[in-house]
Amino acid sequence: MIKAIIFDLDDTLYDQKSPFVAALTKTYQSVLSQDELAKIFNRFHDFNEQTFNQVMDTTMSLEAWQTARIRHALAPIVKHVSTDWAIQFEMAYQQALDHISLFDGLAGTLTKLSHAFKIGIITNGPAPIQHQKLHQLQIEHFVHPDNIFISDELGIAKPDPSIFTTWAHQVGIKANEAVYVGDNAALDMTSAKHAGWQTFWFNYRHNDQVTPSVIPDQIIQSPAELNELLLALVQAASAS
Fold first, then answer.
1. In this predicted structure, what is the pLDDT of residue 208?
2. What local confidence, expressed as pLDDT, does residue 212 receive?
3. Angle between helix 83-96 and helix 17-27 axes, rounded to 10 deg
């Protein structure tokens, strides 16, 4: 029986591409097509997911990582990205994060979920920035602060399965009673499965090229489909 539903943050509860595009449009002088923007964002997103552990183990400073990720994102079209411009972009990106919002309908769904299940967040990232996003999304209305795990604060990051087992132990549930909802096939789905959790892959960017090494329990293709599935869980819990 499912007793807890835990979410990733970036590109799971809100559209991470929106603030990225807003910041890039504000700071980059050339006009980019929608296809170019999508490819640049995907490189930015993948770099975030694949390299934040280097900040965790102090191989790279946070500032160097932030500069490196936009350089990596733009590498196919820009040979040299100056440090000054990279800092300018990062400032614009952080400002754009002050305007993010939950996917349509998700606030109401989370309210209903919180009455039927334990709700949590497990996210990789710098603690101040992740807290900024959570506050902007008003997650405190749905999730108890003790159930929010940010890798930077714990010293554990996905894909280490122990971040999931630690959450379950703290909340007092068994592994098979937890569901993790996340957008990254390898980082989210595989590591949660290795911890014994059920997994819902929120693949709303339709990333057909990336397949989890462990098959998720559900594959969700849109925010509307995510809401529908979560509300079905609430209904099932109410009927039991």
1. 66
2. 64
3. 130
**C-alpha separations of 215 from 47, 197, 212 in Å:** 23, 12, 6
**DSSP string for residues in 76-87:** TT-S---HHHHH
Domain hosting 56: range is 17-99
Q: Is 158 left (phi over 0), alpha (psi -120 to 50) or beta?
A: beta
40-49, 61-70, 125-134, 205-214, range with the lowest pLDDT = 205-214
Q: Higher model confidence: residue 240 or residue 54?
A: 54
Do 227 and 112 share a structural domain? yes
Mark whether 163 and 228 lie in a shared domain: yes
Task: Give the three-class secondary structure for 67.
Answer: helix
**Structure pTM?**
0.94
Extract the runs of DSSP E, i.e. beta strands, from 65-216.
118-123, 148-150, 178-182, 198-202
| Cα–Cα dist 116/99, whole Å | 29
DSSP classification of residue 122: E
The burial class, CB within 10 Å (0-12 / 13-18 / 19+), for 125 is buried
Is the preceding peptide bond at 126 cis, omega within 30 degrees of 0? no
Could you tell me the CATH number of the domain that includes residue 130?
3.40.50.1000
